[in-house]
């Protein structure tokens, strides 16, 4: 059973993978098959207490209650955009706040989850890093975000179809909890979210890209690239000093060769910084030989940052250059622009209000 990242006498029940649940049941002298029943109560019926698990014995329910927590977080607030995007601010048991987002697409409902309280990567365009890193989330705290979003969708008879690990934090700095989270939400006895419907985004922790190639299964990998050369990337993303672009691309090529899976490169467009035609040509030279896809992201304005939005015609000019060079490219549809939709903004507002 994994240790929680928050010190607590009771770990979250949602942190247990199916195998870990079976091991715990056997340890207490119960039957391993009960794990499937517990998973059904947690993730299919989505109960909020162990007492509601009525096909379990009173003794087992008591042991579950004595050993585990079932309430992971409480909703502080949520904002709903005109386009249907819902952004939640949740309070964890130690008082820290995190964000989770429901995004509506033609192919279903995608949930963006957070893996850390804050972030230490220091990307110069991101609101998440403004307060630094407080702690990792444990696997159950990440799982619970999907569960809380699903309960919201239950009100309209909808379900979570896709998960993107692109919220606050660097997922690969919380690697073991990330892997446990992926196993739990992918399990067909629970939330049953297909591996190919899950995408993990990293800023470029090179050793973990190699490890993810071995352990990530069919889960999609996205790389926050944002620059076509190492000098510019270092200015935008200080992590490039530790894991230079050349080493990052070597790891990406290994991942593609090992898994046969396409990599997505996330490329935020910052007006006058990385969005000129010469940047597009340089990007095409850099990744043109790879099995990849480029997701162009028009920047969300963050008050604490100085970056401005690339004009619409220049966004399409950038896209056209890449396509002419044979690169698969899309422009991310803007969602939640009328709420605090940029990653970390709602949490930053809450922090100001509670401190001030």
From TrEMBL:
Reactions it catalyzes: adenosine(2503) in 23S rRNA + 2 reduced [2Fe-2S]-[ferredoxin] + 2 S-adenosyl-L-methionine = 2-methyladenosine(2503) in 23S rRNA + 5'-deoxyadenosine + L-methionine + 2 oxidized [2Fe-2S]-[ferredoxin] + S-adenosyl-L-homocysteine; adenosine(37) in tRNA + 2 reduced [2Fe-2S]-[ferredoxin] + 2 S-adenosyl-L-methionine = 2-methyladenosine(37) in tRNA + 5'-deoxyadenosine + L-methionine + 2 oxidized [2Fe-2S]-[ferredoxin] + S-adenosyl-L-homocysteine
Matching Gene3D superfamilies: 1.10.150.530, Aldolase class I
Keyword annotations from UniProtKB, A to Z: 4Fe-4S, Cytoplasm, Disulfide bond, Iron, Iron-sulfur, Metal-binding, Methyltransferase, rRNA processing, S-adenosyl-L-methionine, Transferase, tRNA processing
Active site: 99 (proton acceptor), 343 (s-methylcysteine intermediate)
One of the protein's GO biological processes: tRNA methylation
All copies of domain Radical SAM core, residue ranges: 105-338
E.C. code: 2.1.1.192
Name this polypeptide is given: Probable dual-specificity RNA methyltransferase RlmN
UniProt source species: Brevibacillus borstelensis AK1
Gene transcribed to yield this protein: rlmN
């Amino acid at each position: 059973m994994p240790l929680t990242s928050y010190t607590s006498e009771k770990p979250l029940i949602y942190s247990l993978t199916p195998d870990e649940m079976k091991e715990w049941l056997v340890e207490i002298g119960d039957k391993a098959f009960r794990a499937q029943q517990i998973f059904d109560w947690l993730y299919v019926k989505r109960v909020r207490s162990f007492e509601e698990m009525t096909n379990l014995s009173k003794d087992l329910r008591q042991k579950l209650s004595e050993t585990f927590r079932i309430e992971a977080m409480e909703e502080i607030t949520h904002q709903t955009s005109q386009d249907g995007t819902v952004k939640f601010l949740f309070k964890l048991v130690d008082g820290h706040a995190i964000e989770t987002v429901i995004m509506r697409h033609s192919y279903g409902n995608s949930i963006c989850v957070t893996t850390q309280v804050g972030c230490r990567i220091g990307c110069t365009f991101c609101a998440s890093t403004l307060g630094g890193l407080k702690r990792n989330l444990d696997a159950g705290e990440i799982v619970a975000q999907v569960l809380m979003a699903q309960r919201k969708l239950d009100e309209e008879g909808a379900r979570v179809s896709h998960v993107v690990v692109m919220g606050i934090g660097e997922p690969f700095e919380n690697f073991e909890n990330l892997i446990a989270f992926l196993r739990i939400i992918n399990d067909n006895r629970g939330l049953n979210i297909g591996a190919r419907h899950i995408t993990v985004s990293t800023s470029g922790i090179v050793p973990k890209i190699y490890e993810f190639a071995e352990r990530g299964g069919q889960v999609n990998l996205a790389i926050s690239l944002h620059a076509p050369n190492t000098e510019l990337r270092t200015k935008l993303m200080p992590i490039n000093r530790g894991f230079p672009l050349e080493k990052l691309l070597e790891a990406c090529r290994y991942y593609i060769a090992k898994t046969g899976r396409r990599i997505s490169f996330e490329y935020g467009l910052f007006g006058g910084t990385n969005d000129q035609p010469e940047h597009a040509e340089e990007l095409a030279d850099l990744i043109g030989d790879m099995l990849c896809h480029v997701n162009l992201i028009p920047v969300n304005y963050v008050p604490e940052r100085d970056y401005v939005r690339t004009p619409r015609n220049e966004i399409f000019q950038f896209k056209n250059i890449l396509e002419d060079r044979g690169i698969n490219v899309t422009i991310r549809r803007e969602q939640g622009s009328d709420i605090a939709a940029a990653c970390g903004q709602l949490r930053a507002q809450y922090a100001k209000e509670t401190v001030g």
